Amino acid sequence: MSPPEISRPVKPETVFDRDAEWDALVAFTCDARPGAGLGVVSGRLRQGKTHLLKELTAALGGFCFGAQQAARAESLRRLGDELARYTGEAPPPHRTGWEDVVDALLALGERGRPVPVVIDEFPDLVRQSPELPSVIHGAYRRLRETGRDNRTRLLLSGSSLPVMHRLFGAAAPLHGLADLELTLRPLDFRQSARFWHIDDPRLALLVHAVVGGTPAYRHYVAGDAPSRADDFDAWVCRTVLNPRTPLFLESHHLLQEETDHWDRALCHSALTAIATGCRTQGEIAECLGTPLTDASHCLTLLQTNGLLYGTPDAFRPHLVRLRIAEPLLAFEHAAVWPHRSALEQQDSVEVWRRARPVFDSAVAGPHFAQICRDWVMDHAGQAVFGARPATVAHGSLSDPEQRAGPDLEAEVVVRGRADARSKPLLSVGLARWDRVMDLRHLEHIRRLLTLLAARGEDVTHTRPACYSGVGFTPSLRAAEADGQVVLVDLDRLYQGDQHDSDSVAARRTER
């Protein structure tokens, strides 16, 4: 006999975007096949996990418990009391262990229909009760052994990425039990523009360079968004530089919560070094005046917590470039950090006047380059580069004709799917936030292609590309018309091109 069909709820209007995530959660929780299911939902703080899961359980009549940093006995008591209110039964006697509580939670799925049961911020419980994952594993094993008709859909959610990885890693008791593993990532730059109700692409990118795609930050400023481009500076002053808004100290809270009790001073200094131009472990250690081992430990911690990304150089894979994952942290440590004390004593408008040039060069420029890389992966159609991109990264090469000069760099280097020997080089591109690009930029790319060809790279089908925040000269537009270069401006970043198949959200989930 086939399982009964379950009515699948429509995503509530209070949940912005997250269509793929909602569909995945609904498919898991509404699966009517017998057997208890286990799902894992992870993601950094402030991404809307709790709201999404509460809306899910409300729509399906499920149970949701929000864990807190509390002693074991208090957590057991709270969970027992909330479970009693949900079932309408008398509160249970005082429980001293998790076995009975977990069995009671799983028993919710023995009423003939799938029931979502959510434990939000699961790592907070595990910190006080390390035995809890083994208890859950044992409960699932007993259900399988007894053959009971159980359709509980248990969802364990957490913001502590290292703990979640450890709990569900290869050596963990819960490894292999999960039927669903879902990660909520920040909204991408296009989603963020819609979320903030910003139509001007230049303004949207500037706002994204400050607050990124974290949904909670719009609520932190009571929905205040810049109304037009010339309102951006005033918006920064009345929100992120305003001591009366939660956003003012958010970067400090974020670092404190993500890195627990490690050396936060060194973490702040490392982030400042990266935000102001250092990209490799060696450069950062030299800037901090600290041994490479200490710097490496700090950087590994930040990467493990999802605050840093490390990407191999597109032309020199042994060289790993680091960048700050959370735009608000980059904004803080590049533009605001040197002026923190002044903000306590001076008008924010004057402080921002001094910080704005640093923001334009050290924050907006690199952020624009990252947005261009994101566009390539998530929005550029296959026809743009002749094949679907597999990787996109920053690349650099030394020029033998300029031994004493800086490396030649390209901010947007696109490679395709690997064949038997290598990943084909689809495109080499430059990104300039604040410059009108001309034929000199195209010649720069051609020089890079000549050097790459001399090293044995196949550049036969490599397409030069220029990405600009302010536009291109007529001569470069003419080169585009002749098929010599791909040009991408802000309008194209925010509105043009789409992948031919597969939803963008699904591709972002893969990554």
TrEMBL record:
Gene Ontology MF term list: ATP binding
Taxonomy, superkingdom: Bacteria
Keywords: ATP-binding, Nucleotide-binding
Keyword Nucleotide-binding belongs to the record: yes
Protein name: ATP-binding protein
